[in-house]
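> call design_seq(struct)
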């Protein structure tokens, strides 16, 4: 049974460890039916383009294998499948069953329950690992990066796509004003005001670009890079596990 949201987004801020995991899990269980519609409205459907760009950094080719961590409703798995072709393999893992149930309506891929901080997967299994808008919500970002590193084959690539705060002061002010005021109102139209108050605020408490890069490097990744999208409101971090494929 999914964990229940305690009633306010503050519960997610104050919770740690298992309680944090349960609070976030319950929140995503609640918004699963409307997640795709609201996500497309907020991003003007640009999130599909951003995912395709993220997949391009993984340098996948026909027959390779890819894992999407925190796969949610499965949108990242679609460009991953296109990249690896019919002979390749794509897998998805998420800890929220209602989100996975939505994902199964649009994918024929292998999808299973699993935690980003403790993946139910053997080491050195995949050519690529992706995560979209997921690292921000895990209880231990460093551990999630270590797990992504562990399941990659030597030379495998990792890409993480998430929210960011624009570096420009004026752009940051305007962006945060829009996100903190309009996004919760949009969520309220779908009866999800609590979740869509938490999600914009989570960006304000998220690691900086440099801190995320440092976490990935600490996990063992090399060639860690990042690229801003949408005037710095979105950022993709990508890196490689040493060995195997050429950089």
């Amino acid at each position: 049974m999914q964990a229940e949201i305690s009633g306010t987004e503050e519960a997610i801020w104050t919770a740690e460890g298992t309680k944090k995991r349960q609070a976030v899990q319950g929140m995503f269980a609640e918004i699963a039916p409307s997640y795709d519609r609201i996500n497309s409205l907020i991003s003007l459907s640009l999130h599909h383009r951003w995912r395709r760009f993220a997949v391009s950094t993984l340098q996948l080719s026909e027959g390779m294998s890819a894992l999407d961590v925190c796969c949610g409703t499965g949108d990242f798995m679609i460009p991953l499948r296109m990249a690896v072709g019919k002979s390749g393999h794509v897998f998805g893992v998420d800890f929220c069953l209602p989100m996975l149930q939505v994902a199964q309506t649009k994918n024929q891929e292998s999808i299973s329950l699993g935690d980003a901080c403790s993946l139910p997967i053997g080491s050195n299994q995949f050519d690529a690992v992706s995560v979209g808008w997921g690292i921000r919500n895990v209880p231990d970002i460093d551990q999630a990066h270590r797990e992504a590193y562990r399941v990659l084959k030597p030379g495998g690539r990792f890409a993480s796509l998430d929210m960011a705060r624009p570096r420009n002061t004026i752009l940051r002010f305007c962006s945060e004003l829009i996100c903190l005021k309009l996004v919760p109102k949009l969520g309220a139209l779908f009866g999800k005001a609590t979740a869509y108050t938490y999600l914009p605020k989570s960006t304000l408490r998220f690691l900086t670009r440099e801190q995320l890069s440092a976490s990935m490097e600490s996990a063992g990744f090399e060639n860690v890079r990042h690229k801003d999208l949408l005037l710095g409101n979105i950022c993709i971090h990508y890196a490689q596990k040493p060995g195997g494929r050429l950089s």
